Amino acid sequence: MTGAAHPDFRALARIGAAVRERLSADPSVRRFPEERIELYAVESFLGADECDRLIGMIDAVACPSSLIDDKDWPDYRTSCSSDIDVWDDTVRGIDARLAALTGLPATSGESAQGQRYQCGQYFQEHCDWFDTSAGYWPREKRSGGQRSWTAMIYLNSVDEGGTTDFTRIRLSVPPLAGCLLLWNNAQADGTPNPWSMHAARPVVRGVKYVVTKWFRARAWR
Ligand SMILES: O=C(O)CCC(=O)C(=O)O
Ligand SMILES: [Fe+2]
C-alpha cells in the first residue's frame, strides 16, 4: 500500500485509533455490533430546544443540495441543504461538544451542514470519503485532505421512511430526535472503508432534518 494510492492513510489510521479509544471509554456512546465498520450512536446528544432551533435555521436557508460532482447525477440527492451559521451559539456549542466527545480537533471539521428531506426526498447510496481519482480531489486535497469521521445528528423523528441505511452491511437506522450517529469512513489501516456505503432512504411520511459534519485528516480550510 502506498500513500499515493491512499493519501492521508497514516493520519487516518492514527485518528481512527485515537477516536476509537476515546469512544470506547465513554458510557454515553453505544457501538453498533458490527465488525466491518466503526459506527456509534449517542442518544440525546442534542436537547429538544437545540433541535427546534436548528430546524428553524435550516428552514430559513434551505436550498437544493449540491453534490460535489452534481453534473452527472442530477437525481442523486434530492434533499435541501445549507451550511448553517457557524457563529451561531447553538452551532458553536455542538462543534465544541463533538470535539470533546471524539477528541477530533475542531479545526479538522468542515462547517456543519443542515439538510431537510421532504416527502419523497432521499440521498442515494454513497460513501463520504473522497474519490481521489476524481476531478475535485486536487481541491479537496489542499483543503484538508481525505475525510476521516462523519458525525450526523437527527433533529427529529420521522413518521415513516427516511432511515439511514448502511447498504452493504444491511443495517438500517431510523431517525431519532437528538441522536448522534458517528462513523469512521476509514478502516483501521487508514484506507477508505467500502462497508461505510450508506443512503438516506426516501421520507414516506413527514419531513426529516439532519445536521452533518465531516472531519478531515488535516485542518479544513
Ligand atoms: O440523511 C441521512 O440519513 C444521511 C446523510 C448523508 O449520508 C450525508 O449527508 O452524507
Ligand atoms: Fe453520507
Automatic annotation (TrEMBL):
The keyword Hydrolase does not apply. Its cofactor is L-ascorbate. Keywords: Dioxygenase, Iron, Metal-binding, Oxidoreductase, Vitamin C. It holds the Pfam family 2OG-FeII_Oxy_3. Residues 108-217 form the Fe2OG dioxygenase domain. InterPro entries: Oxoglu/Fe-dep_dioxygenase_dom, P4HA-like, Pro_4_hyd_alph, Pro_4_hyd_alph_FE2OG_OXY. The keyword Transferase does not apply. It comes from the Bacteria. This is 2OG-Fe(II) oxygenase. It comes from Novosphingobium album (ex Hu et al. 2023). The lineage of its organism: Bacteria, Pseudomonadati, Pseudomonadota, Alphaproteobacteria, Sphingomonadales.
